[in-house]
Amino acid sequence: MYRFLIGVVVWLGATVLASLVGGTWWGLGVFLVLGVPAVLWFMGRIGEPLSEPATHVQPTARTGKLLVLVPPEGEIDGLPDEVARRDGVQEVVVVVPALATHTEQLTGAVDDRRDEAQRRADAVARRLSQHGLNARGEVGADEPLQALEDTLRLYGADEIVVAGVDETLLQRARERFAMPVSRIS
């Protein structure tokens, strides 16, 4: 977990030790001999994914749980009716990504977006509850696929339903998750 930090401490420690024992030029030599390969290795890794992007969560038995991704804005009038018509649905988790602008992310002013997302998730969950479903609303990460993955890890689901989004996001969700992913307009 702290490999990078440990590596830097060892690198700088070896540099200081070489400087103390052999002088400035020995310290510089150790600094370059250990540092240049590390920097080249690190530069080669920039742009690579930090971890495996796919989440392969396959339920062993049907639980009746449905995970619904709802965009932060836009009409979703038909969503409660369509979800209620699905067979075997007992519990619905509604996740709304807290989409913040780049400036809001840089300044850390994302609280308003999270509050808006929570209000929307709760409103959709209330509408689903009026159809007799056990529903809860959750705020997700600012990236929709990450919001799905985080919520899926917390609550689990048999199926993911994406409400009113573009085909690209739907296709990426189908590639990323090893479970049925459908779309409700």
Largest sheet data: 5 strands, parallel
* Overall tally of domains: 2
Question: Could you name the CATH topology of the largest domain?
Answer: Rossmann fold
Average pLDDT level: 82
Identify the strand order in the major beta sheet.
Answer: 3-2-1-4-5
**Helix/strand order, N-terminal first:** HHEHEHHEHEHE
> Mind telling me which CATH architecture of the largest domain this is?
3-Layer(aba) Sandwich
Written description of the protein model:
The protein is an alpha/beta fold. The protein has 2 domains: 3-45; 65-184, HUPs (Rossmann fold). The chain has helices spanning 3-22, 24-45, 79-84, 102-107, 111-129, 144-155, 167-176, and strands at 65-69, 91-97, 134-140, 159-163, 181-184. The protein has a 5-stranded parallel β-sheet with strand order 3-2-1-4-5. Helix 1 (3-22) packs antiparallel against helix 2. The chain is elongated and about 80 Å long. The chain starts with a helix and ends with a strand.
Structure summarized in a few sentences:
The chain is of the alpha/beta class and 185 residues long.
Quickly list its features:
185 residues; alpha/beta; Rossmann fold; 2 domains; 7 helices; 15% strand
Task: Compile the SSE list and pairings.
Layout lengths: L2 H20 L1 H22 L19 E5 L9 H6 L6 E7 L4 H6 L3 H19 L4 E7 L3 H12 L3 E5 L3 H10 L4 E4 L1
Parallel strand pairs: 1-2, 1-4, 2-3, 4-5
Helix pairs in contact: 1-2
